[in-house]
Design brief:
Blueprint lengths: L9 E5 L4 H12 L3 E6 L7 E4 L6 E6 L2 H8 L3 E4 L3 H13 L4 E4 L6 H14 L2 E3 L5 E4 L3 E4 L8 E8 L2 H10 L5 E6 L10 H10 L5 E7 L4 H12 L4 E6 L23 H10 L3 E2 L3 H13 L1
Helix pairs in contact: 3-4, 5-9, 6-7, 7-8
């Protein structure tokens, strides 16, 4: 079992014919993902040939998400379009009734995200991102930019704000493997949250341990800690990036800014530890804690 993404997932790529879309569609196909179409109104009716494990495959291009869904049964869309066009792409996918929309694009205006997030909530559509690496259920499906060859299937669930730390954690625990890994992104407004992923992993019978990676800024980790305390019975290991970040300075992600005593790594660590989470001081120590708990 996996959360949000399975081997049956059928994926369309909005922006497949652009340079990033083409590159990552090639990678997704190589990892076994069922990519069933691309979307580009100017190239509707054409196809793009990609290499795949079973030989070359021609992926059709549709004029709209609705057309792609009607003709392929797609239930996941991944978006590789520039920031200025991201809102329109997400709204199109939501209004077509796409159940899961994964937004890789970085630099999406927060106002745009707020608007399409509200629409997704109204329509019951799950968003992952924006500004995220996507999600992977190793050996089943991979949607986004997470490298598929750094780990295999296993019984660890991972949810992370940071793409780079997602990859590092997957690599350090590659011999144990993952049920699913979800990169939720670090913007001030995101679709799927730590809490959403924690709830899904808690309900997943094939996940035995959860790794949660947060970072400075906001109160998402504190809210996740309260959720863990009240709802999660599986062991949780955590890491908070940004202990050395200077106050008042944005660090990398748009949401990673500390104001006064709010949003500090120390405050987040204390909240998580109070909820029974084992918190590492470094990513490698966090991986070691997860390994010890899982093997025990």
């Amino acid at each position: 079992m996996a959360i949000f993404l399975t081997e049956q997932s059928k994926v369309v790529v909005q922006g497949m014919t652009g340079s990033e879309g083409t590159k990552h569609t090639t990678r997704m196909l190589a990892s076994g993902t069922q990519v069933v179409g691309g979307v580009n109104p100017r190239k509707a009716g054409t196809s793009v040939t990609f290499p795949s494990p079973s030989g070359e495959v021609d992926v059709p291009v549709f004029g709209s998400v609705a057309d792609a869904m009607a003709q392929t049964g797609a239930d996941v869309s991944v978006i590789f379009v520039p920031p200025a066009y991201t809102k329109a792409a997400v709204v199109e996918a939501i209004e077509a009734g796409m159940p899961l929309v994964v937004i890789i694009t970085e630099g999406v205006p927060v106002k745009d995200t707020a608007e399409f997030f509200a629409l997704a909530q109204e329509k019951g559509v799950r968003l992952v991102g924006p500004n995220c690496p996507g999600l992977i259920s190793p050996g089943k499906s991979n949607v986004g930019i997470i490298p598929a060859d750094i780990t295999g299937p296993g019984r660890i669930g991972l949810v992370s704000k940071s793409g780079t730390l997602t990859y590092q954690m997957m690599y350090e625990l590659r011999d144990l493997g993952f049920s699913s890994a979800v990169g939720i992104g670090g913007d001030p407004i995101i679709g799927t949250t730590h809490i959403d992923a924690l709830a899904a992993f808690q309900d997943d019978p094939d996940t035995d341990l959860i790794v949660m990676i947060g970072e400075i800024g906001g109160d998402a980790e504190e809210r996740a800690a309260a959720f863990i305390r009240d709802n999660v019975t599986k062991p949780v290991v955590g890491y908070v990036a940004g202990f050395t970040a200077p106050e008042g300075k944005t660090m990398g992600h748009a949401g990673a800014i500390v104001s006064g005593s709010a949003g500090t790594a120390q405050a987040k660590q204390e909240a998580l530890e109070a909820a029974g989470v084992h918190v590492g001081k470094t990513p490698s120590e966090t991986a070691a804690l997860a390994r010890k708990l899982l093997q025990a």
